[in-house]
Write a structure and sequence with these properties.
- This protein is mostly helical.
- The chain folds into two domains: 57 residues, no CATH class; 94 residues.
- The chain has nine helices and two strands; from the N terminus they run αααααααααββ.
- It is elongated, with a radius of gyration of 17 Å.
- This is Pentatricopeptide repeat-containing protein.
Length: 160
């Protein structure tokens, strides 16, 4: 079932992804973090934030605790929507569990630069620069940030 959820996520069909997700739960399987993240990502592709948050609230009420994979999807989505406070709150949840993954810092750097929060963007850029994944992306010309005065133009081409 988790593969069907992922397949519908990639096909931009959040309703069928959620249908199989619910079927999996009703069949007695407990969703893992990856499957939940796929369902949330399916909603993110169609920008159905209300449905995604409803799913998370329902799961948390039933005892599910989202993990780093689900939180990473949320940080990326909140970043694209420039919901700075929500992205930062979700980041705090990630750092309580472990270090934030590379993709989270990419999303935050992008979000802060789009919101013209240069100091915060530079902070996450420094974190990125310390990671070996960043060096690889720069060498392949897949990541660049151009600062012009107080504005930043970010080009990020990272495949998650």
């Amino acid at each position: 079932m988790p593969l069907l959820v992922e397949a519908y996520r990639q096909a931009n069909d959040p309703d069928n992804a959620r249908g199989y997700f619910d079927h999996m739960i009703n069949s007695g399987y407990k969703p893992d973090d990856r499957c939940t993240a796929s369902t949330i990502a399916a909603y993110a592709k169609q920008n159905f934030l209300d449905k995604a948050l409803d799913l998370l609230l329902t799961l948390e009420k039933d005892g599910f605790q989202p993990g780093i994979t689900t939180y990473t999807v949320l940080v990326d989505w909140f970043g694209k929507l420039q919901l700075v406070e929500e992205a930062e709150a979700t980041l705090r949840k990630i750092t309580e569990e472990d270090n934030a993954p590379f993709e989270v810092h990419v999303s935050l750097c992008d979000m802060y630069s789009r919101a013209f929060l240069e100091l915060k963007a530079r902070k996450h850029l420094k974190i990125l620069e310390a990671k070996k994944e960043f060096v690889s992306l720069v060498e392949k010309n897949r990541f660049s940030i151009v600062w012009k005065g107080s504005e930043a133009f970010v080009t990020i081409q990272v495949n998650y």
